[in-house]
Design a protein that fits this description.
Layout: H1 2-14, H2 24-27, E1 29-30, E2 33-34, H3 37-55, E3 59-63, H4 70-76, E4 80-85, H5 94-103, E5 105-108, H6 111-119, E6 125-126, E7 148-153, H7 158-166, E8 172-174, E9 187-189, H8 195-204, E10 205-210, H9 226-232, E11 236-240, H10 245-248, E12 256-258, H11 264-273, H12 275-292, H13 295-306
Parallel strand pairs: 3-4, 4-5, 5-6, 7-8, 7-10, 8-9, 10-11, 11-12
Antiparallel strand pairs: 1-2
Helix pairs in contact: 1-13, 9-12
Length: 307
Amino acid sequence: MKLHLEHVLSGYRKAGCQTMTADYHDMAAWYGLPLPEKWAQEQRERALEKILKKHRPDVCFFAGSIPFDLGRIKSYYPGLVVFHDYDGPRRRSLDSFAELSKSCLLLTVSRYIERELRLRDRTAFYLPHGVDTDYYAPDNGSANSYPADISFIGRATERRIDICGKSGMDIALYGDRWKKTALAGMCRLPRNVYENEVVSIYRDTTVMINILQEPLENFNTILSLQCFAIPSTGTCLCAEFAEEFPEHFEEGKEVLLFRDPAELPELLKRAAADKLGAKQIGSAARKRCLAEHTHRHRAEQFLKIIS
């Protein structure tokens, strides 16, 4: 998350904004030492109040989580409080989103959340993930090599285990929990992978799979960061359909999509057999990312929302 937020801030700077960051984990410490939770929250609240009163920013932007008392913030801070939801219906109820939208400007990576809140007369704006196309580039990886026809990086949930197992394909799996499943033989590394390793895996794979995390498959919503990062490396993405895909990538030309897990095996077989065709899909998707999906594009979209 820290790396992603650095990329996000870079996009805002390129759009002409002055930025500063504050880590709420660090804010809950006393001279570098973590506090017991019963004191940590108050320490965190006071630290944020000190920052906002000192710097007086126009916008206080929370990304992914908001572990603060919004009412307390509004009592002393006259600027715009913004919350960018990355989880959609995975972690919060619609009622909790509605409450958030009373106190701050709510952005979301889910069209479902935006639509449902507006049906309830609450304001929400769709703002998808962006991507750092220099970091996630075809030639930007680690010194290690991870060649594979098909790969998947992600948490080994019951549904994902079932889908990958029934694909009938040899899938290079990454994530420490895969080694404890029936698909342990396809686990390439007995640990999680990070940063440049992830870029290298994307780059060295013919086809990367993306499978929705429970319960998002029930809503068919949210393009995760992977759905922009994988195409940005020029690698072909084969993803489970989400309603936001048609807005951002052309099916069959820029991404491969499956609406039912039973469709996945044939998609993977064809893509793995036609490496040139898979590469052309990845290249087209990277061009789309460069043209429309950078963090600067998202920053400019946000500035239009608040203007």
